[in-house]
Amino acid sequence: MDIPRLRYSDHARRRMRQYALSEDEIEAIVWCPASRIVTHRGVEHYGYADDGREFKVVTNQTETKVITITREYPRRPRYGRKTTMQQPIQVTVDEVYPVGYVEYKSFEQECDYTLRLLREPDGRVQVYGSTDGRRDDGCGVHVDFNANDEIVGLEILSVDEADLLAIAKDFAAQNDLAFPADIRAVAVPAA
């Protein structure tokens, strides 16, 4: 049986361009991952590109469509609170899969690495690197950083899930980032 080619969301294609990844590299991570986590939102495949960088490729449940790609990073950033609220420069939602991105700095020019956002049992939102624990917990919200540990943007795997939007909104509020009240109302299609 031949393995069918993967399909890609517009958001995933944007990340492939930014990280200079080929379809072959993505398919190798999906079909032969170093590790894999199945959640109700999709399947997270962890693996390595040809040059040794670690990535997470998130597919739908049937593993036929790539929703997003993140560059895994082992450490938490050293970022400080801002004194003024930072407004998003662009908000996008993929037309096929409901992945949303709230961009605070130019993604193509500045995104260097991605970390996971998870809600703690006490209600706090915590940033996790790939070696910080909770690696086996599925994640629905990512935060991108540049080389100076400044926040580039927030990625929400499903803008239709209230719990994911709440995590993104809480993190934004904790870090003086403006977050849209209705992400779909202000979004433009992902390109």
Summarize it.
The protein has 191 residues and is an alpha+beta fold.
Approximate strand percentage: 25-35%
Unreliable segments of 5+ consecutive residues: none
Tally of alpha and pi helices: 5
Helix content: 10-25%
Count of discrete domains: 2
Describe the sheet with the most strands. 7 strands, mixed
Count of β-strands: 12
Structural class: alpha+beta
Global geometry: globular
SSE run: EHHEEEEEEHEEEEHHE
Overall mean pLDDT? 84
Distance between the termini: 33 Å
Radius of gyration: 16 Å
- Order of strands across the biggest sheet? 9-8-10-11-7-6-12
Structure description:
With about 190 residues, the protein is of the alpha+beta class. The protein has 2 domains: about 60 residues; about 100 residues, no CATH class. It is about 20% helix and about 30% strand. The chain has 5 helices and 12 strands. The strands form 2 sheets. The chain has a 7-stranded mixed sheet. Strands 1-5-4-3-2 form a 5-stranded mixed sheet. A hairpin with a 6-residue loop joins strand 6 and strand 7. It is globular. The N and C termini lie far apart (about 35 Å).
For this entry, give a set of tags.
2 domains; alpha+beta; 191 residues; five-stranded mixed beta sheet; 5 helices; 12 strands; seven-stranded mixed beta sheet
Topology diagram in text:
Elements (H helix, E strand, L loop, with lengths): L6 E2 L1 H10 L3 H9 L3 E4 L4 E6 L5 E6 L5 E7 L18 E4 L6 E4 L3 H4 L2 E7 L5 E4 L12 E5 L5 E6 L5 H13 L8 H4 L1 E2 L2
Parallel strand pairs: 1-5, 6-12
Antiparallel strand pairs: 2-3, 3-4, 4-5, 6-7, 7-11, 8-9, 8-10, 10-11
